[in-house]
Every structure is written in structure tokens, then in C-alpha cells.
Amino acid sequence: MAPPLLRLDDIRLTFGGTPLLDGAALSASAGDKIALVGRNGSGKSTLLKIAAGLAEPQDGEVFRQPSATVRYLPQAPDMDGFATVRAYVEAGLGPADDPHRVTYLLDHLGLTGDERPDDLSGGEARRAALAKVMAPEPDILLLDEPTNHLDLQVIEWLEEELIRSSSALIVISHDRRFLERVSRATVWLDRGQTRRLYKGFGHFEEWRDIILEEEEREQHKLGRQIVREEHWLRYGVTARRKRNMRRLGELQAMRQRFRSHRGAEGLANMVASEAAESGKLVIEAKGISKSFGDLVVVRDFSTRIQRGDRVGLVGPNGAGKTTLLKMLTGALAPDTGTVRLGTNIEIATLDQKREAVDPEETLAHYLTDGRGETVVVNGEERHVVSWMKDFLFKPEQARTPVRELSGGERARLILARVLARPANLLVLDEPTNDLDMETLELLQELVAGYPGTVILVSHDRDFLDRTVTSTIAPDGAGRWIEYAGGYSDMLAQRGGTRLDDRKAARAKNGATSNGSAAKEVPEAPKGPAKKLSYKQKFALETLPKKMEEASGVIARLEEKLADPVLFSRDPATFNKTVAALDKERASLAAMEEEWLELEMLREEIEGA
């Protein structure tokens, strides 16, 4: 194993009360790609700052290879004192670094370098900061939420760049798909301590759940042992006094362990306040267009959104997602075409601009709009503190000003207010920003099971895949196309073409200027086969049985992994079972894809 470039051991830090870091450890060797995960407020950013040398622990050891170069991406980069973006990025280079790499990075991140830092949007500032830390190709790259405010085009490019990079990487991110792609190991910071999984983030959630279940079981056993010991001391046969004193001491130690145990932090309890059911038709748009001067943002777009649909809007920053969203919800009139809203529509909107909240307003005042101490959720009157606790706020925070909240807490606060309003149409603009993994999972379940209608704008591919029933994406020159399914389904229907490649593809194919807005299906091949080959027929007949057998194997492997003590009892068998499960799932996915393609080909031939 390569010697570590960076090592943090037994790191301790407290700001009064419960320690933020209580024996945390972190290490990285050449080529490591580590996801650092944990709840909002668990100390991830603080631990990363300690690794970067920007904060000092109260106790513990910090070691960095003297010759190793370290670059750190903060959540809020400071560009004061720089005339241009290029000057800011070049300030991160060392004497031996290649200045041409600055141009390469700025070009791929969509910047010229001539921009003034004061004029940058949040996404542009994040891209400039990424260019600065990546330009010297450091030995150690520490990234705190690198995908915040980035569009999908840049996120996908960044993934490929980090995968190819030789730098040791430690990254904090709420983007699950991003972490799954770039990480090879996972460090979980939980209640001040760290645990390391020598696998990427894709294996984290299952591993975490097993650990928490085992911990809960051990705590339960300890509680029962205390009860038995108390019973013995009170009612057991009197033994020698010395032995009794020893057992009394052991009982006191057990009580202390039981009381001092910090259980896993609770989960938010997200419930949306529902209005009366809307009509079956929620939104109907016919041939809508919108231009700003010579710039055509939306051209001849049509769609029908019905009750129960969950529609995702994706595309690069500046493509016109917000403009299209406003037209669909009636907030902005189209230049041409019509938008008709259905009957009995009640809209609740989550605005991605967190700064719209008055920073001096208290949490309770914000949630109640200043009307007393209660909120009404699904017709039931609830005290505002009770509603706050459902979103992981403490009662004493009711009088706290919004300005004192972290980014994740502010995101939860806005969600709490939006979800308290009676609605049957949720409009969510970047709802996943700043949320931790556990809160994201709950929001995902809420959206996926929402009985009304949802329209959401997001750059989170995993969230889109798990929630939406259709995806609207730009197709160049103001054209937008609606695809059935989530983000991955959209890519499959476009032949794997990503958002930034589509315009060139259409130009090459000579597409017409009045692009249809109906749900797109893959283009038929130019010369379809007149009949299936013997091999294709055989595969079409045998694949269903093979898929059924694979599903059975997967079920048995999952049942084996459900054993909560398997990992602690036999790590080798656990790891072998996980590898076998991954292999079977990949095999099943490949068979399903092959069968689907053959079935589509069969239908095409029979319909010809």
C-alpha cells in the first residue's frame, strides 16, 4: 500500500457542548478517490479545512507529505483583488506548472478568462474556482460541494476529468450520481467519528444501514443487561461483599455507557399539505414560443400535463428552463401560442434563490408568515415548533434569525414552508441544493409518492431518475422535447447523446426549424431488417426465463446480505456476496436491455 500523502488521526474539536469531531481520522494516498459523507452539520467541511491546513484541531495529529501540493475548493470562493477570472485562476499555479492548462480548463468550463469576478453568477464563480484548484494538477485535491450551481453539461465533464486525474481526491457532495462515478472509497463522518469503506459511494447506503442496525441491537442488549444486573443486586442471593461491590461498579459503568451513547441523528418527517384534487388536465400548452430580442428561448413547444404526472426540466444554465417553467405555470405570457391551466389548481413553489428569505426574520415568523404560533397542515392545526421538529430543527431555534442557518438548514426551512401550504401542483426549482443524503432520500420519496402533480428543475440525475415520469430537455435553437422517463431514459432515447452534443447532432442531420414538442421516440434505423435472425428469435424466447432466474439469484443474495451481523462476523463472505450481487444486477440489466431492443425490433418488423 502506498504511503499516505495526507493523514489525520484522532482529530478532536468542540465549540462547547457535544464535540463536533471526536477522534475522527482521514487519510489519502496517491490515486485515492474518496467520498466524505455525513449529515449536514456533522463537521465534514471542518474536517476538510483541517486537512487543507485552514483550520486547527484542538487535539490530534495532522500529517502532510512536505513535498505534496494541496489545493482546496471552498463552498464560497473569495475572488477579491483580481481584475479578471484568468488572473484569479493563474494565481493558483506554481512555478513549474503549465500555464496552458488554465486555457484548457477555462474553455471546457465555459469561461473566456476575461470576465470580471464581480460580474459572475454563482455557477460561473464555482467554475472559476474549480479551474484554479485543478490547474496545477495537485497531489491532493480537496473539493467541498464542487457541483453546486453547475449544470449537467459541466458536471458530466468534471466527472470525466476527475476520474482521469492522478491527484488524490477527497470530495464532499450531495450529488449521489457524481459520488458514485468518481469515488473508490467512502469515509462516513457520523457523531464526530469516522468509518472507512474501501468501496465507492454506490455501496455506502447498504453498509451504513447494516452498521446502524447492529449498533441499535448492541444498545438494546446493553439495556437488557443493565436490567438483569439491577435485578440481581436487589433480589439475588447475597454473595461476598467484595463481589457485590465489583458488580455494582460494573453496573455503574454500563449505565454510563448507555446514557452517553449518541444515537444516530433522526430523520426529517416530510409531509406535503394537500389541497383538493385538481382536474385531470393540469396544464396544456400549444405551440408556445418566447424570444428576448434576437434570442429564441422557446420555439413552438406543446405538451399536456395531467394529474399525477411528475415532469423534470433539464438543460444547461441559460437554456431557458426557468422561462419555460414560468410560461407553463402562467407566471409569464408566451409571445405566441396558448397555455391553459386546468380546474382547481393550487400551486406551491420552491424558489432556488435562497437569498429571497429575509435573513433577519426568525424561523417561527417565516413559517407562520407572522400569523401566530401555529401552521395548518392537511387541515390540522399544529404548533410551529412541532412542525419545525419534523424538519430536524430544535425548539430553541424558533427565535433564531435565518442568517444564522447553514445552507442545508436554510434549504430544509424553505421546504418546511412550501410543504405546509395546501397544493396539488408542486413547482420545485433545484430542490436538492444543499440537502444531505438522508433528507434527499425523504424528499425523493415524497415527490415519487405525491398524489398531485410535480414540475421540477434539477441538475441531480439520480434524483430525476428516481422521481420523474417524463423529462423535458433542450434540443437547440429554442426547441424543447419531452421524453418518457427520467434522465437516463432521456439519454437512451437520444442514443446516448448528452445535452451539449444535441445541437451539433441536429445540425448534422439537417433537422427542420419547427421541432415537435411531442414525446420523442428513438429514430427508426434507415434499413430495418425484414425478419429476425434465428439468433435473435432464440434470444427473444429464452431471455425471459434467464431474467427470471437472475432475479431469483439476486433475491437470494439480498436475503443473505440482510443478515445484520454478516459483515462483522465474516467480512470476506460479505464482500464476496456484494460482488456477486453487483455482477448479477449488471447481468440482469444487460439482459433486460437486450430483450427490450429485440422486442422493439420485432414490433417494428411486424408493423412494417
Which tags fit this structure?
19 helices; 4 domains; alpha/beta; single chain; Rossmann fold; globular; six-stranded mixed β-sheet; 608 residues; 20 strands
Description:
There is one protein chain. By secondary structure, the chain is α/β, with parallel strands linked by helices. It has helices at about 45-50, 85-90, 100-110, 120-135, 150-165, 175-180, 205-235, 240-260, 320-330, 365-370, 385-390, 405-420, 435-450, 460-465, 485-495, 500-510, 535-560, 565-570, 570-605; strands at about 5-15, 20-30, 35, 60-65, 70-75, 140-145, 170, 185-190, 195, 280-290, 295-305, 310-315, 335-340, 345-350, 375, 380-385, 425-430, 455, 470-475, 480-485. The chain is globular. The model is unreliable at about 500-530 (pLDDT under 50).
Tally of DSSP helical segments: 19
Number of domains: 4
For the termini, the CA-CA separation is 60 Å
Average pLDDT for all residues: 82
**Helix/sheet category:** alpha/beta
User: In which order are the strands of the major sheet placed?
Assistant: 5-6-7-3-8-9
Might you state the CATH topology name of the largest domain?
Rossmann fold
CATH superfamily of the largest domain: P-loop containing nucleotide triphosphate hydrolases
Q: Tell me the number of strands.
A: 20
